[in-house]
Amino acid sequence: MTIAIYPGSFDPITNGHIDVARRAAKLFDKLVFAVYKTPGKPTLFSLEERLEMARRALADLPNVEVQSFDGLAVDFAQKVKAQAMVRGLRVSADFEREFDMAMMNKKLQPDLELVCFMASPDYQFLRSSLLKEVAKLGGSIKNLVPEHVAQALRKKEGA
Predict the structure, then answer these.
(1) Which residues are catalytic?
(2) Structural domains counted in the chain
């Protein structure tokens, strides 16, 4: 069985994340959508909220399991017996950051392969921080997140 993890803070999950997860789920027997417990940045949503939003957004994918993790992603990959780590690439700046992380991860866990998905054109600009800013300022986030995530954003941001 081929297992991959897709790690991130997912604060919140976006249609771009969902697109990558759907495409990865077609390639692997099992995809663990791994929500990082304590990212090095403040989060708008609690871990429980991020897990619930992800579970609802990915519920129709039978081979996708949503879990939380803490510590190094490569250690979590080893724990769940993953052979690959999935990442999404939007722009060239992503490539540089992902390349650096991939080289470090390869040093830490030589058998773990990195599989990158190019962002779909509709989501190349989309990042959670930008999405939260638009929602906070009352802008439309239609077609950028599932409706349950949009509702949660509006509730948090008072919009």
Answers:
(1) 17, 41, 90, 128
(2) 1
Q: Is residue 42 part of a domain?
A: yes
Instruction: Please name the residue that has the structure tokens 């990915």.
Output: 58
Neighbours of 38 (CB within 10 A): 12
pLDDT tens-digit map of 96-154 = 888 888 899 999 999 999 999 999 999 988 888 889 999 989 899 999 999 999 999 98
Whether 118 contacts 86, CB under 8 Å? no
Residue type, 90: R
* Cα–Cα dist 36/121, whole Å: 26
Question: Cα 97 from chain centroid?
Answer: 15
Residue 101 in any domain: the answer is yes
Residue type, 93: A
Position 134 in a domain: no
Name the pTM for this structure. 0.93
Q: Where are the alpha helices (DSSP H) in the chain?
A: 15-27, 47-57, 73-79, 92-108, 128-136, 147-157
CA dist 81 and 149 (Å) reads: 30
Question: For the chain, what percent of residues have pLDDT higher than 90?
Answer: 75
Contacts of 116 (CB under 8 A, 6+ apart): 86, 87, 88, 89, 98
